[in-house]
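Why this split exists: single-chain examples teach little about how molecules sit against one another. For that reason, every record in the complexes split bundles all components of an assembly together and asks for one structure covering all of them. Below is a record exactly as it appears in the raw files.
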Amino acid sequence: MPRRRPSALRRLVLLTCAAAVAIYVAGRALPALGEDGHLVVRWWGALALYAVGGLSCLVRAAVAEPRQRLPWALLGAGILLFGAGSLAHLLSGDRGAHVPAAALVGWLALYPLGYAALLLLMRERLRPFTLSLSLDGLLGGLTLAAVCAAIVRADIDGIPFSHVLAGLAYPVADVLLLVLALWGLAATGWRDRSWLVMSAALAALTAGDIAVGVQVARDHYEALSAASATYPIALVGLGAAAWFAVAPRRPPRPDALAVLVLPAACAAAILAVLALDGSAALPRWIGLVALVVIGCRAALGFRELSALQVSRRFERGFEEAAIGMAIISEDLRWVRVNAKLAQMLGRGADELRGAPILASIHPDDHHLSHRIADRLLAGAPPPPPERRLVSADGTVIDVVVSAVLIEGEDGAPQFFSQFSDVTGRRRSERHAEALAELSRVALDLHDADELAAAVCAGVRDAMPADACVLLPPGAAPGAASGPMLTAPVRRRATGPATLTAHRRLPATGFHDQDVQFLQAAANLLGTALDRASIEGELREQALTDPLTGLANRSFLAAHLEHATAAAARGGEVALLLLDLDRFKVVNDTLGHRAGDELLRVVAERLRAAVRPSDVVARLGGDEFVVAWTAAQPEAEELPALAQRVLDAIAAPCVVDGQELHVTASAGLAVSGSEPATAETLLRDADVAMYRAKEHGGAGCEVFDAGLRARVVRRMAIEGELRRAIEADELRLHLQPVVDLATFALTGFEALVRWEHPERGLIGPDEFVGVAEETGLVVPLGRWVLQEATSALAELQARTSEPLRMAVNLSARQLTPALVADVRAAAAAAGVRPRDLTLEVTETLLVDGAAAVDVLTDLRAMGVAIALDDFGTGWSSLGALQRHPVDVLKLDRSLVAPAAASPAASALVRAAVEMARALGLLVVAEGIEDAAQLQAMQALACPRGQGFLFSRPMPLAEALEIAVAGAIVPAALA
Ligand code: C2E
Ligand code: CA
Ligand code: CA
């Protein structure tokens, strides 16, 4: 326990000192001891006290820390030597003023040793120690000496100079020591006990020496006078002083006044002495020496002063620096902190002094602070200088730290550190990085919600903020418990939305840079949202039908592709393809605007008839598709659903002021067990839809195995038909047309057949449709024309009557080229065009003005035009007069029931009467039995054809009938 030993020792030593002094004083004063006893005490007691004082210092030196050993040892030695001087004096036996030289040497040795000891103590205790301090001691002593010399001058007149010098030398030397001790006492704020005891001891010594000095000067020296008692007591006091506590030095406040006051005062005193009594040698000599010291002291003072100014400038620079500055102790505590750093840390500079710096450094950066200290102490280059400080309110401050190693006032290493606040720079770097990242992210996002979420997340991270939300236009931000920032998000079409950022308390408010950043983020978001919405519009435009707003063909294709791919993994896709019946009529008669209006109405009805998840598309023209993909209805429900859609369309609607009854034909296709693609589904639905058209429209056909087989066959036919025309596999059969009144043969209808090498004779229903779809019907039709005209030529050659030949036409044949073909065929066969009849259906007629022009040209050539299949479509009798026709062919579906149904017979009667009124010839088709014949005869239908008379037959048989000239039905024969 090294600390306890000095403390116990201290008590022991101090007690010894006190006891020694008490015994000595008592020994000198107690009358009981008598003259001799007193003498012994005075001589030997004093020697004992010198020993106590000196040993006290030496013991102190032995237990002191290394730096304090020397001063105490020196002082102890000085005291012991003083004692030795006294011993020499005692042993010399001389009690007068003639003191042996050895005694003088011992006594005087106390002064240089004491002076050196005090200077060393001051250097040790009073940091920073300056040379001027030691000079101040010298100066004070000399000045006092000069003043004393001047005062006692009158008394010492006539006394030999050597006596005067000897009398004054001790007091002067005492005063030098005293001034030094007082200076030390003053520097510690007059509180330091050690300096205090030392000053008191030295004051006693001075007083004693002055008294003795006066005795010596007057030559009344008395070796054991009362005055001499001060010596041992004072020196024990010095020894005791070694054991008193040392107060810390007050912070130095040297200024011009303090530096100059003492020398100036001393100089003034000496000048006054010299001026008053310049002739006296002693004061003059002392005064001159003092003046030299004053000069030195003043010079040093000025140097210190300028150093002080430098340090003042440093002080001010330190205090008022725009960056944070601090002196940090080796154990990482704040020694001094300037105002800026204190402000950064949100604490008072005094409050921080002595506090550990790590409390103000971000926990993640503690290791850096340790490292910088270690490296500086090891002389290695410091680690990266970036740190985060944490202020009292929790704000994180980015700083760049530079630190250098300095020596502190107590000689211990310290760090002088500068902290530049780079929070602003970091913040703007962070903001810039965030904006760059956001604009990159925004390019990849197309959804408004995702964009807003991304920007809000970016703002939260970079700002940073506890919350960030995008408020829709018109919404006001709610009351927040912490600081809040808002920035308008300007949009192309809508009013500005608001981007808000919010920090919870306790937190610092937002910085100007945050305001700018939030606005930049808001602008970025506004632009990105606009871009996304424009992209969305463009995408929509690309995928929707502009007329109806329904999905368009490309959307449907993409959707079906997706849906069929999903269906391949399980599930079904159902497709309803719709085609309006008679849409052409509406377009032609009411105009395109009305047609568009009708399409829009139909689109609306389709949308209303299905669920929102079902896709409704317009493929173009009057073709629509309903696709059930999302939630697939049960297969059994589908026909009902299709019917509901058809019913919705069929409800009367008013377009352009006219009430219209529109129907549609629909084909339903379902991706069944077989893998389906969008393409096959649409094709199947199309086939089914055509089937519905064939059945008269206004209905729905389901694509099924039968239809599929038909499709397959059709596809096979398509390939073969081309070859068949080249290979001359087509045959022409002729069906007689007779006068129903006389049964006389009036002509034939040419009906094409295909004599397939493997499948035998194939009827036109199987391949004419395919030929129409593929365009093959044009060469086929030309072949039929040529074959029919040449057949007519042969037939006419066998009869006297001018037989007619009727040839069926397809829509695609009705081009201006047909007129030339007909003329060429007639010319080539050598028949008159007026013996030819060309049969067309009404669908074909309503297909536009061009077709009508072709027919008009043909009629001009003399060719008769027949309206085929009357009664199957939508022909109204009124429409007859609008068409350039000469013959009306009543369809079998009208002829067959005419015998039984009054309604059908009424319609036939009206048609016949109307035709007669218009000058048209009426031909009843498909008369199969006598009843039908009689019905037609009763209705006054002039012509007829049908199995009752004859099936279509090859030319060879037709020639025989032509020769006969009439066909009497077997049933009547
Ligand atoms: P279409 O012009 O209405 O021809 C009359 C159809 O009725 C013929 O069928 C004929 O054989 C059939 N038929 C005649 N009498 C009766 C009867 O009493 N009962 C029944 N059940 N049927 C009867 P086919 O020959 O099969 O021709 C079918 C359709 O093919 C024709 O109908 C016509 O539209 C078309 N077609 C025939 N040949 C040609 C041609 O060379 N060119 C074009 N473009 N179409 C043709
Ligand atoms: Ca026909
Ligand atoms: Ca017909």
